[in-house]
Specification:
Elements: E1 6-12, E2 45-50, H1 58-61, E3 64-66, E4 86-91, E5 94-98, E6 104-107, E7 114-118, E8 149-156, E9 162-165, H2 172-179, E10 197-202, E11 208-213, E12 240-246, H3 256-270, H4 272-275, E13 279-284, H5 291-305, E14 311-313, H6 322-356, H7 363-370
Parallel strand pairs: 1-3, 2-4, 9-11, 9-12, 12-13, 13-14
Antiparallel strand pairs: 1-8, 2-7, 5-6, 5-8, 10-11
């Protein structure tokens, strides 16, 4: 199935049904009075996050989604039937923007999350609502209100714990194949990966995390060169980036340090917050070098790249060093999770202490009690 991560659609909620002006005409009730019912509510359009969907391909070809209008009211106090709501199912990680104003309408981050996209119109009132002591036979009625209409821009950002970053043919697809259940296409030419791949890495039976691989980046990606710029958004939700570097490129004259610096520069051009994310350096393809050459090249790379963060040496093809890297990633994610939990507990405790410190005799609360 083709991976689609952007789409534009139009949603139109149903109009409300019209109220009716009607009078009772039953036998032996010559002055039965008004009995016009209200119109029914128009159908609304909702979106539901579904973890079983991983692409927006359904919305690339179906552009219009419309809900039914409510039924008109009838005599004998009969109210019109409300229209059924329409539910659109989209992948978890979808951002929904108003295409005209740029407003963020919904951010689907959890399975089953439901958000309103377009509200159906309210039904009009029948003449029964206009009856009063001075207007015994009202002929007024009101029409139903129109439903909302919106042009929407859908943008999918995959939800992953770890994102892979690197130049074409750096070995990202081989690495994700080695450590997870993902099976992307692998070949000895650039731009083998044409769309993001997600893989679940099993550290043990009950411990796992999700890793995302995007097409390789080249210099000028922030301006649209290559393919990776189209998918950099998928790394914005990750908690950790793995910068994979081909330590022994096959082409003569290719400098891995120059490529790595160019990639970091493209990240900063695209999004400063993405460049500031925690990033680890992963030096790949060490299996093609002997021990002395490997040690020399690693030291030279770190010195020229001026890197001070974590460094891992692996061979994705032979799986050398992969398990150690996976264990370190899981430990980092767990520490981050625990830190966030402690921060949330601290904020909750501060809120409780603030509530406990409130003086019930405060004059401001006595004013509120009077209301």
């Amino acid at each position: 199935m083709k991976f689609i991560d952007e789409a534009k659609i139009e949603v139109v909620a149903g109009d409300g049904g019209n109220g009716v002006a009607s009078f009772c005409r039953e036998k032996f009730r010559p002055f039965g009075g008004p009995d016009g019912g209200d119109g029914g509510r128009g159908g609304s359009i909702w979106v539901v996050a579904d973890r079983n969907i991983n692409t927006l391909v359904d919305y690339r070809y179906s552009k219009m989604y419309r809900a039914d209008r409510g039924e008109n009211g009838r005599g004998s106090d009969c109210y019109g039937k409300g229209a059924e709501d329409v539910y659109l199912r989209m992948p978890v990680g979808t951002l929904i923007h108003d295409d005209n104003t740029g407003e963020l309408i919904a951010d689907l981050t959890e399975h089953g999350q439901t958000e309103l996209l377009a509200k159906g119109g309210e039904g009009g009132w029948g003449n029964i609502h206009f009856k009063s002591s001075v207007n015994r036979a009202p002929r007024q009625k009101s029409d139903g209100k129109p439903g909302e209409r919106r042009d929407l821009r859908l943008e999918l950002k995959v939800l992953a714990d770890v994102g892979l970053l690197g130049m074409p043919n750096a070995g990202k697809s081989t690495f994700i194949t080695a450590v997870s259940n993902a099976r992307p296409k692998i070949a000895d030419y650039p731009f083998t990966t044409l769309h993001p791949n997600l893989g679940v890495v099993r550290v043990s039976h009950e411990r796992s995390f999700v890793i995302a691989d995007i097409p390789g980046l080249i210099e000028g990606a922030a301006e649209g060169a290559g393919l990776g710029h189209q998918f950099l958004r998928h790394l914005q939700r990750t908690g950790l980036l793995l910068h994979i570097v081909d330590l022994s490129p096959f082409e003569e004259g290719v400098d891995p340090v120059k490529q790595a610096k160019a990639l970091v520069k493209e990240l900063k051009k695209y999004d400063e917050s993405l460049a500031d994310k925690p990033r680890w350096l992963v030096l790949n393809k060490i299996d093609v070098l002997d021990d002395d050459a490997r040690v020399k090249r690693v030291k030279d790379f770190i010195k020229r790249f001026a890197w001070k963060g974590p460094v891992f040496e692996i061979s994705a093809l032979s799986h050398t060093g992969c398990q150690e890297l996976v264990n370190a990633i899981y430990q980092h994610l767990e520490q981050k999770k625990h830190a966030e939990q402690r921060a949330a507990e601290t904020r909750m405790a501060q809120a409780v202490r603030a509530i406990d410190s409130i003086d019930p005799e405060d004059p401001r609360f006595k004013v509120l009690d009077e209301y």
